[in-house]
Amino acid sequence: MSFLNRSKISFFVFLVISQVIVMGWGASSYSARQGQYVPEFLPCDPVSESTPDMANGSDSLQMDPLPQVDFCSKWNPEFAFNGHHCCAKKAASSRKRRKSSCSIERAKGNYCGEITSEQKEYTRLVQSGQVGDVLDLFQMARWRESDQAYCTVNNGFLAWGRRLIPSVRNRIALRSSDRCTEFGTDQMIGMLEWVGRQVGQSYAGSEYQGTRLVIGDISAPRGGCLSGRGGRRGHLSHTTGQDVDVAFLVAKANKSSPVSFHRDFDVKQNWSLLKQIFKNPFACIKVVFLDKRLISKLSTVAHKDQEWSTYQRFIRHMPGHRNHLHVRIGNGPGLPGCAPDAKPEFEQEEQGEDMDLDFLDEEDDYMARSQHLLYGATDASTETTTETVKASRQPSRSPSQTVNIQE
Question: What whole-number distance in Å separates Cα of residue 369 and Cα of residue 151?
Fold first, then answer.
């Protein structure tokens, strides 16, 4: 082989190796915080509904207009599952959606292990009475644009999530307190705290001391996918702390509200509850999902109310919501819809697999109430029985998959 040919080959090899090195360096970036190479961060797609604003005077972590890789790796529990991207891919089509699932790390019975030290300290301070009136905290923050909810409600995450803490004053009861899914944005927790207090004022008599506003899932401590039965997604949303499931209000003299989802839909009581939800001063309501048959019942009574014409279009039918309300909020306070050109009909929610999960939830609660009537159980044991029935449906787990509940 001539010297000229050898030179050409050497130069070609040099170019190939150089290109590989450049491409390898461009595809990875070094994370000093984690001490390892990770794929280069790509901006969220779709763009986050809420990104930090360095000019808003917030004392939170200062960042570029779009969240950076270190921030996402810290707060997004599905960061690795998303291919080291801040946000997951867009939701799949309805045919594929039935087979969607969370990452294997999130196929667990509770998310208590994800609670941060700051969230634990906040819980301790509130429960010990050292915080004072928690609504004062939300009053100061309600006009500040949220920097807690990222990406979209179907594939996002929650930063600095606030915990909903039941109290005598807010009349709130958690449907599944052992799952640690009662975390949301400040606007969400402020809204629920305020609405709960309105329920307490409406039913202040001693005969209604057992009346409770029962809250289901909001989000995990840092948001992300909530796993259901068999590893499937328990919800298509509830990833950013901006969605909450609320049981129908049941206020009966000298009786306690069932701490479960049920079909006891008192039209007058729940229309009053819906109006308080829409009027809350902390979070604008994007949409409320409810079964069409219950919407029809609601309209027979509420159409006489002048406010029905204002709120009607934001109460939308969605299959699988025959035993609870699903409320979605925006990033701050305001009128229903959260925008002058609001289109609540475009808001999407659980379909496919989640309809089956909602049906099983109803069946679980029905079985628990049946046992309550049959054996004369107390209200507290009824809630325990509901969780026992649900646990019987969960797939068996090895000891390594068991999650210890932390305070």
Answer: 39
